[in-house]
Every structure is written in structure tokens, then in C-alpha cells.
């Protein structure tokens, strides 16, 4: 599920997943013609999540207009937007009996709306078919356009997420077509537009950052209005020149230190650990936020 690189530490070991469940999920996605970020980002948690009937849907195709140096998703010639995709995602949500759904996408700088309306249509289709479901979106930066951020928020997701991926100093190297300040501003605008939705972001460690830089990023994300935070270990998707190798494996104790720091500066939920990814245990983070809100009353 992940490319061969430095020998993984002991703490990366996981239980062998249910092969029958994984095969069944793959067959369902293939039949409906939809993609999951689990497969295309080569997530190390795919087996455990799929065994539990959890998946993160990736809309707008399987090719990205950007070529971030940490990402496994292929870049290059993109496909036309599939008008049936939102309905197919909704059908998968219903068939799998999901109560909490994460929808993300490739970046589509080639589109007039940067793909925002496909998010809107997908949210609406899911709500129409499975009204009780909770929906989390993990969006690209939409080129920093406030109107596109607003149209997605107006569709009513429960959680609005956009990742910073790494600390400011390393951002240009790992995200050459993105912009650190623009990403922060996406989250700031989302908070200003909707005070009720939970705002989420995440980043990786093990890329060469310092502890001071991590703490500064955590504070910056809290300052723009984030409620939820995920921090995970970077794993190079391949040995291709495009993909930067792992600088180091961060110890579990360090992840716990970052979790405690995040909570101390006011986050409602911080998931921090070697195997943590943006949508890993997403529903748990959402519940943490609901609990924190109830405690405020």
C-alpha cells in the first residue's frame, strides 16, 4: 500500500485487514465508476478503514493539474468533469450504509470554478439520497477565491477542510504551485463566511521541519479559525525524482507532544500520530468538536 523506502519503524505495524471486505469495497467503487483518495494517495490506513466500511471519496477525476512533491496522485492530462459523478458518489454512500462521509478532490486549476460546483452537487446529491448523513469536505485552495469557498459552504457541509501540508519554510519545495499564505487565507475566509461549520486543516511532519516551526504553524491555524487539526508522518509515495524522500520518522512521543500543544492553544480536536491522515478517524474529530461545543453551553 506504500512505496518501499526507509524501513518503517515498529509503530507502523497494523493488523492484517479483512481481504473480503476490501475486495467488496473495490468492486463497489469500480462498478460505480468513482475514485477514492484511499487508493490514489496510497494511504497506509486503507486496509483498516475499508475493513470498517469507511472510505474517502475523490471527485473531479484521478488526475491533478498540480504536481505537489509529497502526493501520490498522478498529474497531467485531466478528464472532463463527469456530470454523473455526484449521483454515483451518493449511491455509494447509501449502498455502504455510511453515516459520515469525507469528500475530497484533485486540484482543477483548469476549470472556471476550480471544481467548486462539483463539490456543491456532490453534497446536494448525498443529502438528497441519505438525509441523515454528516458530510466533511477537504477542498483545494480554489485559487483563493472567496466566492468559490462561499458556494461550497452554502451547500451545508458539517466540516470544511483545507490542508497546509507542511510548515511555511518548506511549503515552496513541497507545494510549488500552491501558496502558504493563500491556504491560510482560505481557512480564514471560510471562518468569516460561516461561523457554525467546523473548520479543519492538517499537515505532515518528518519533512525536515523544526519543533518551533510546527508549533508556529499550529498557532497560525488556530488564529485563522480552525477547530480541528490532524498531524501525521510523511511517507514518500515512490522513489520517483518528483517525490521527496522522508527526512526522518517522528517518534510517537513527539506526536503526543504536538497533540497536547494543539489542545492547549484552543483546538477542539487534535489527531496526531504516525498513521494519522486528513480523513483518518474523521468522524471522531467531528464528535470531539460537538462535545466541546456542548461543554461551552
The chain-level mean pLDDT equals 88
- Unreliable spans: 1-5
Count of all domains: 1
Compressed to H and E, one letter per element, the order equals HEHHEHEHEHEHHEHEHEH
Output the number of helix runs.
11
Strand order of the largest sheet: 1-2-3-4-5-6-7-8
Helix-residue proportion: 40-55%
SS-based class: alpha/beta
Q: Supply the CATH superfamily name.
A: Aldolase class I
Number of strands: 8
Gross morphology is globular
Percentage of β-strand residues = 5-15%
Q: According to CATH, what is the topology?
A: TIM Barrel
Rounded radius of gyration (Å): 18 Å
The CATH architecture can be given as: Alpha-Beta Barrel
N- to C-terminal distance: 44 Å
The biggest beta sheet is recorded as: 8 strands, mixed
Task: Please report the first level of CATH classification, the CATH class.
Answer: Alpha Beta
Question: Summed up, what is this model?
Answer:
By secondary structure, the chain is an alpha/beta fold.
How does this model look, in words?
With 297 residues, the protein is an alpha/beta fold. The chain has one domain (15-296): Aldolase class I (TIM Barrel). The protein has eleven helices and eight strands. It has helices at 19-32, 37-40, 46-51, 85-96, 116-129, 146-154, 168-174, 180-193, 211-223, 252-264, 282-296, and strands at 35-36, 56-59, 100-105, 134-138, 159-161, 198-205, 228-233, 269-272. The chain has an eight-stranded mixed β-sheet with strand order 1-2-3-4-5-6-7-8, sandwiched between helices. Helix 6 packs across helix 8. It is globular, with a radius of gyration of 18 Å. It starts with 18 loop residues before the first helix and ends with a helix. Mean pLDDT is 88; it is low at 1-5.
Amino acid at each position: 500500500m506504500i512505496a518501499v523506502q526507509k524501513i518503517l519503524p515498529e509503530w507502523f505495524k497494523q493488523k492484517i485487514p479483512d481481504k473480503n471486505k476490501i475486495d467488496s469495497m473495490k468492486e463497489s467503487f469500480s462498478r460505480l465508476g468513482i475514485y477514492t483518495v484511499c487508493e490514489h494517495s496510497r494511504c497506509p490506513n486503507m486496509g483498516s478503514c475499508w475493513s470498517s466500511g469507511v472510505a474517502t471519496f475523490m471527485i473531479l477525476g484521478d488526475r491533478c493539474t498540480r504536481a505537489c512533491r509529497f502526493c501520490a496522485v498522478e498529474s497531467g492530462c485531466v478528464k472532463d468533469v463527469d456530470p454523473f459523478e455526484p449521483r454515483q458518489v451518493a449511491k455509494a454512500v447509501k449502498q455502504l450504509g455510511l453515516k459520515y462521509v469525507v469528500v475530497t478532490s484533485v486540484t482543477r486549476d483548469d476549470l472556471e470554478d476550480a471544481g467548486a460546483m462539483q463539490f456543491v452537487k456532490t453534497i446536494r446529491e448525498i443529502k438528497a439520497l441519505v438525509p441523515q448523513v454528516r458530510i466533511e469536505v477537504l477542498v483545494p485552495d480554489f485559487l483563493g477565491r472567496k466566492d468559490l469557498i462561499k458556494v461550497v459552504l452554502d451547500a451545508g457541509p458539517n466540516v470544511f477542510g483545507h490542508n497546509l501540508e507542511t510548515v511555511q519554510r518548506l511549503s515552496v519545495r513541497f507545494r510549488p504551485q500552491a501558496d502558504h499564505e493563500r491556504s491560510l487565507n482560505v481557512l480564514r475566509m471560510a471562518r468569516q463566511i460561516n461561523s457554525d461549520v467546523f473548520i479543519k486543516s492538517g499537515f505532515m511532519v518528518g519533512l525536515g521541519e523544526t519543533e518551533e516551526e510546527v508549533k508556529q504553524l499550529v498557532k497560525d491555524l488556530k488564529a485563522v479559525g480552525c477547530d480541528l487539526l490532524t498531524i501525521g508522518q510523511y511517507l514518500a509515495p515512490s522513489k520517483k525524482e518528483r517525490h521527496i524522500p522522508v527526512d526522518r520518522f517522528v517518534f510517537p512521543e513527539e506526536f503526543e507532544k504536538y497533540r497536547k500543544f494543539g489542545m492547549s492553544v484552543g483546538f477542539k480536536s487534535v489527531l496526531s500520530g504516525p498513521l494519522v491522515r486528513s480523513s483518518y478517524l474523521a468522524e471522531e474529530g467531528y464528535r470531539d468538536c460537538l462535545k466541546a461545543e456542548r461543554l461551552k453551553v
